[in-house]
Amino acid sequence: MFNIKRMAVLAALFAGLAGPALAADLPQPIEEAPPPVVEAQPVDVGGWYIRGDIDYHKSTVRGIDYITYGAEPCPCGPPTPVPGSNSFDFGKLKGGFSLGGGVGYKINDYFRTDLTADYWFKSNFNGGTSDSSGATSVEVSKMSALLLLANAYVDIGTWHGITPYVGAGIGGARVRWDRVYDPSPAATETNPGSANWRFAYALMAGASYCLTDKVILDAGYRFTHIQGGRMFEWDASSAGPGFDHGINTHEVRGGLRYQFSGNNGCAAPVVAYQPEPEPIYTK
């Protein structure tokens, strides 16, 4: 009986010692490292930028009127105007290119403003007139302009680096017409062109794309309306002066913006420092 009790005690001691050893030999669960903490970019409100643009535009002249004259009352001055005006039968401007630049300020993630200047290179003009007798005349000229606008934009949001936007601008344009004349070899009629400042406004839509954390590609469409004004002056060999009713322009634009500071939505998120977990040893 004594031997049985001794064997029971020894068996209990053996089980107590072998249990932890056997448990240590079993596979141990490995704790996974926690994911890195992504911190939001510190919001730097506001940021100055500069921009450069190139475009191709197609303009439409909304109509042209000119004054006709009767016989001279005396040799001391120009003829007296006949009441009323005549109109061009048609007038068309061909497409042209422009270069522009500007400086702007990004107020927040959704709103920015800028001041821009665009020079429209000369576009060829072709028109025609006719008189009461049915005689017709071809009229040609060239038009160029300097467009100055103050613009405001709403950036709708940024997805995969692409930011669609809409905008509007208001300002003025200095429109310059070259002389208006009939190119026929026997024609003698010619009128000096006119240059003047006019009211202008624009509506824009487009999208920008982050090339780097500072450089942004901008592409879009702009509609520009320039108020009517004097197109050409009176000349002794012809009628005049003449006035266009305004110019509507459709522009396809592309350019680059460089932002000096602030949050432009292009910078990569900052990953906070996360200490490595303690190594886990298993047998």
From TrEMBL:
Keyword Signal: yes
Pfam families hit by this protein: OMP_b-brl
Record keyword Signal present: yes
Superkingdom as given in the UniProt entry: Bacteria
Entry keywords, A to Z: Signal
Signal peptide coordinates: 1-23
Domain Outer membrane protein beta-barrel, residue spans: 44-260
Name of the featured protein: Porin opacity type
Organism: Mesorhizobium plurifarium
Upper taxonomic lineage: Bacteria, Pseudomonadati, Pseudomonadota, Alphaproteobacteria, Hyphomicrobiales
